[in-house]
Design goal:
- The protein is α/β, with parallel strands linked by helices.
- It has a single domain, classed as Cytidine Deaminase, domain 2, CATH 3.40.140.
- The chain has helices at about 5-15, 55-70, 90-95, and strands spanning about 1-5, 25-30, 35-40, 75-80, 100-110, 110-120, 125, 130-135.
- The two termini are about 20 Å apart.
- About 35% of the residues are buried.
- It binds zinc ion (ZN).
- Zinc ion binds near residues 79 and 92.
Length: about 140
């Protein structure tokens, strides 16, 4: 997964905003390699946001539409683990969408510590390598 430095900063900034889990959507290019184009923060509408997350549906639909207009797609979702590890929980495994990425940001006492990415394959989350690059990738300009 290719992630720009400023997108990483956005993920960490969002994760630092609350004591509950934060969540959002990643859109971009899924093939031949996964490239993140947009990081879209969503509201966590789960009734127990300290330990769970549920993306609000309106943001999900808007993100899907905005991505399609640009020839992109939803490539995954992110959420934080306040005072937890950047490892998928049993529920994260169960609820992952096939082929999409699950990005987890570990937060310790309000400070984002690290981030991991996982791909759902055969109903299990497998580690997905993350490559951080300095700027905006010229998605359409690559010949
Ligand atoms: Zn989780």
């Amino acid at each position: 997964m290719l992630l720009a430095r400023h997108q990483l900063d956005m993920l960490f900034a969002h994760a630092a905003t609350g004591s509950t889990e934060v969540c959002g959507i990643l859109t971009g290019r899924a093939w031949p390699g996964v490239v993140v184009e947009s990081v879209i923060a969503a509201r966590n509408v789960h009734p127990q946001p300290q330990r769970h997350f549920l993306l609000d549906a309106a943001t999900l639909l808007q993100a899907d539409h905005a991505a399609r207009v640009r020839g992109h797609t939803i490539i995954g979702f992110y959420h934080s683990h306040p005072n937890g590890l950047a490892l998928p929980s049993a529920l994260d495994h169960r609820e992952a969408w096939p082929q999409l990425l699950t990005v987890i940001i570990a937060v310790e006492q309000g400070r984002p510590r690290c981030l991991s990415a996982w791909r759902c394959a055969d109903t299990m989350l497998q580690p997905e390598p993350i490559e951080i690059h300095a700027g905006v990738m010229p998605l359409a300009a690559e010949a």
